[in-house]
Specification:
CvfB_fam, 4 domains, OB fold (Dihydrolipoamide Acetyltransferase, E2P), mainly beta, 13% helix, 297 residues, five-stranded antiparallel sheet, CvfB_S1_st, elongated
Amino acid sequence: MKQPQSERPTVPATERTSTLQLGNYNTLRITRFTDHGAYLDSGEVGEILMPKAYVLPEMKPGDEVRVFVYLDQEERLVGTTETPLARVGEFAYLRVAWVNEYGAFLDWGLMKDLFVPFREQKRRMEKDRSYIVYIYIDEETSRIVASAKVDRFIQPTPYGRYHRGEEVDILIQQKTPLGFKVIVDNAWPGLIYDNQIYEDHRTGERLRASIVTFRPDGKLDLSLQRIGKGRFRDFAEILEERIKEAGGEIPFTDRSDSEDIMREFGVSKKTFKRAVGTLYRSRRIELLPESIRLIDK
């Protein structure tokens, strides 16, 4: 049933974010309960509703709750304990739930779907297909919307922001002739070259990667393998386990074919040789003409 205007006022667009973080999590205090749910104190904006479906039996006035604040079907502020797939200011790979004459609507894990107007689509979005989008607050309407024209929201990486070998979170944006364009730490442009990719990956996949190079144009070159000594130590431990699993000896040496090494272990020959060297120097293996054998201790 529609709630009376006096019970739950619609907040003017210019006031919606004066004290709240719209499209983000907020910790708010419960002021009272009604048949519709719990009302939360949001400061200058006034009270907002947390619908009854999210009210727990143990909740009472004065309790603080962490809610995600967005706009309901009637453009009124509400708080929910549901977890969205992304927040304002983030990039995400989301599925189109439905389309109409105004645009597309994405499933982002909340009751109300996320709107993508036609002007923010690179090409007409199709139902049940997924797209990389950026979520933001439209300045004209103060509504939460998404854009598939994500490149304009990706800024050049500041000089000195990362160091070589630093691990980062990435979102695979798209396949290119050079490799995969990625979004680094939800903000910066990056590229993983084809010769650094040893497994099948897809658009929308979230991975960890290592910084290889900072380029003058603000883009980052990355690797899906760790860079530096830590990387070789990590694979040395994996290699030792693989030798144990094989009965203590494997038919590989540091002269083995690089393609055979990649097919068997999923790493480059350089990484394999460095790991073999680490194990040899620590006297955990012996190198035979046609194999590597663990040393019993």
